[in-house]
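Subject: Protein record for review, amino acid sequence with backbone structure tokens
Why sent: The fold of this protein is of interest and is recorded here as tokens.
Enclosed: The protein record, placed directly beneath this head.
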Amino acid sequence: MERNLEQEGPSPDRILYLLKTRGELSTGQLARRLGMTAMGCRLHLKRLQEQGLVACRAEKGQVGRPAQRWNLLPAAAQRFPESYGELAVEILQDVQLALGSKAVEQLLQQRLQRQLRQYGERLQDKNSTAEKVRALAAMRNEEGYMARAEQVEGHWQLIEDHCPICVAAESCQGLCQTEEQLFQQLLGPEAKVKRVEHLLQGARRCRYQVEILSV
């Protein structure tokens, strides 16, 4: 699936993209964003529902026909980029069995150092924390994280609507721990990074709050 399908691409893929990046939406909200009739949108949603990719609930408390609100089901994850999750899990398990937990920790630290070098090279010309957060979001988006940077109430947020390494992260929690370390080290002492939403803890995405400590 393309990384940005809100404005282009097949309608079913655009629906999945919107539900992935915006969360639960009503039929009317989806239809307006897609620029189509509510009836046409319902037809696409019905097909996606039959494929086991979306589910709906009736929003009660309204006069007349209850509004249908739609969200993604776990099976929809296969329609978004993945980074060879099952293979990564097998490799991590084999390393742990053959060499022990310390070897897995060393692998994760090597990955962290490699990412610090690669990302750091592309952040060298960024002077402010805001520039770094925006550039970091762009790099993560290139890697399939469906990432974006937003400024909310004086803080920057790095939002990742998708996790292409989710399968591996479920098996090895250290992958998630090094992600937060990565962002903190890249942004340096001028910023404080805190993960406030976590996909593996039941959230629909990962979201990091970046507090700028000095300008």
Remarks:
- The CA atoms of residues 169 and 175 lie 6 Å apart.
- The chain has two domains: 11-79, 85-212.
- The chain is about 50% helix and 20% strand.
